Amino acid sequence: MLVPHNTNAKVINVKLPAWSFKVASACLFLCFVAFVSSIYYYTKTNAKLFNYHEMISENSDQKKQLVKFDEETRKLNVAIQDLKEKDQEVRGLLGIEDLSFSRPSKEASKKKYLNNMFRDKIVSLSVNDLRGKLYALNKDLVQSKQSYNLLLASVKDMTQKFDFTPSISPISGPIIAGFGWRRHPIFGSMEFHRGVDIPSFTGANILSSAKGKVVYSGWYSGYGNAVIVEHRDGISTVYGHASRLLVNVGEIVNKGQIIARVGSTGLSTGPHLHYEVRKWNQAINPTKYLDLNIFTANKDIR
Q1: pTM as predicted
Q2: Hey, what's the torsion of the CAs at 76, 77, 79, 85, to 10 degrees?
Q3: 122, 209: one domain
Q4: What pLDDT does 153 receive?
Q5: What is the Cα–Cα distance from 27 to 30, expressed in whole angstroms?
Q6: Are 282 and 194 contained in the same domain?
């Protein structure tokens, strides 16, 4: 019913059927449901989008970390290869046999080449790839450590051998009488000279030419005052005509240690050192033992 404001106007009665209210109510309900559903799906979609962007950001960070980690493993691999090259170089200098490292097959080398060629084009790095690289690096480290330990043991052995090998001249000066047959300076007869004679002044220092144990120190017939030092592998050295002896039997002496003073005792015509090198008590030419280093001592002296 419609009631007009004008009192003279007629009142208009409008009748709506009952089903129209039901339709209107249904429409309102559907609109409400649609509105609520829209809000629900909008909220859910925004949450998914947020999670998606968060995952993208997280994956991006992980990718950066993987790339950085891959770069570090490649640097470590370069360092290991550099150590291998230095290892082989030192072995070459010392004349030590190379340790055979495992070498990659042609297929592996080709695969490595392709991986390096397309490395910059790789979009992502997998954890398995990095695990494989770590496994290879660990294997290289084990081999490098093994090689280093063997090299260190060889160097220590060479150093020890060098310490016990006569390699320096006991005194400074020229050789005036060499090893071999000569006419005796006192008796005038031909005799085999078992060492070399090096002149000097009375009281000059006589050095041990190698590390060893003093097995004799005293008067030694025509040698006068003499010292005999036993080294290793049957090698011993004799220092004769000394004016004074500074070591005793049983004493361990080092290479370059002062063991006596130059003199002219025994069968001698003047102050000098008679120096011998013996191999299993047999005199050998000492000249090649007068100036050696660790390399020549290990290569030339057998």
Answers
A1: 0.60
A2: 170
A3: no
A4: 79
A5: 5
A6: yes
